[in-house]
Amino acid sequence: MKKLILNLGVGILTIYLAVLLVPGVSIKGDFVMVLKTCFWAGIVLGLVNHFFKPLIKLITLPLAILTLGLFWLIINILAIWLVDILFPSLVILRIWPLFLTSLLNWGLTIIFSRIIK
């Protein structure tokens, strides 16, 4: 349960900070729409990271071993891209903002998982 709450919080924070800090990531709409989209897109990102990502990591473990773990970064990028597709008001332009958002998500997950332990 603690890990689910951690993933949801990190997902929301990732989307919010990406909109603020990463050029090429924005949310169309007024302030209320931005807050709603940050919240719900973050919830979906947290759920994807909690439920689907471990299964996909297990399936792609041999490929991750061959690439020394870099393939898991691709999985993280695909998870954020899925959230971008599901929320039309969330706009992530091209691959670099996806990559930077993925790195932000990875870093926040590491930081908050160490704080929780």
Question: Can you walk through the features of this model?
Answer:
The protein has one domain (2-110). With 117 residues, the protein is mainly alpha-helical. It is globular, with a radius of gyration of 14 Å. The chain has helices at 2-21, 31-59, 61-66, 71-86, 95-116, and strands spanning 25-27, 90-92.
Summarize the structure.
The protein is mainly alpha-helical and 117 residues long.
Q: What count of helical segments does DSSP give?
A: 5
Widest beta sheet: strand line-up: 1-2
Please state the structural category.
mainly alpha
How big a fraction of the residues is strand?
5-15%
Ranges with pLDDT <50 over ≥5 residues?
A: none
Query: How many strands appear in the DSSP assignment?
Result: 2
> Topology as H/E string?
HEHHHEH
- Number of structural domains: 1
How would you sum up the global shape? globular
Q: Quick one: biggest sheet?
A: 2 strands, antiparallel
Distance between the termini: 14 Å
List keywords for this structure.
single chain; 117 residues; mainly alpha; two-stranded antiparallel ribbon; 5 helices; 2 strands
Q: Could you outline the blueprint of secondary structure elements for this entry?
A:
Blueprint: H1 2-21, E1 25-27, H2 31-59, H3 61-66, H4 71-86, E2 90-92, H5 95-116
Helix pairs in contact: 1-2, 1-5, 2-4, 4-5
